[in-house]
Write a structure and sequence with these properties.
It is a single chain. The chain is mostly helical. It has three helices and no strands. It has helices at 2-29, 36-55, 65-85. It is globular, with a radius of gyration of 15 Å.
């Protein structure tokens, strides 16, 4: 049972990480997120990025919340995996 739960957590963390990266790249081409893919990525990642934006100050026109989100996702994933395995 822990192995399948570990795999599920790993998959969720990886999917969320890819979604955050894809949203960051897509924001260069579709900053308003009006395309169906943009709306989907916005809906999936905004619950992660919005709280981070409230805490982390912006650096001028640069939004570093995706970087912080990726780091947090990896840390949370490793902590959960470590708790499940040992």
């Amino acid at each position: 049972m822990p192995t399948s739960l570990y795999g599920l957590i790993t998959l969720i963390i990886e999917v969320l990480s890819v979604a955050v990266i894809a949203r960051a790249f897509l924001s260069w081409f579709d900053p308003t997120m009006r395309t169906p893919v943009g709306r989907f990525l916005y809906d999936v990642t905004e619950p992660i990025l919005a709280p981070i934006r409230r805490v982390v100050p912006s650096l001028g026109m640069f939004d570093i919340s995706p970087i912080v989100a990726l780091i947090l996702l990896q840390v949370i994933g490793r902590l959960l995996a470590r708790a499940l395995v040992g």
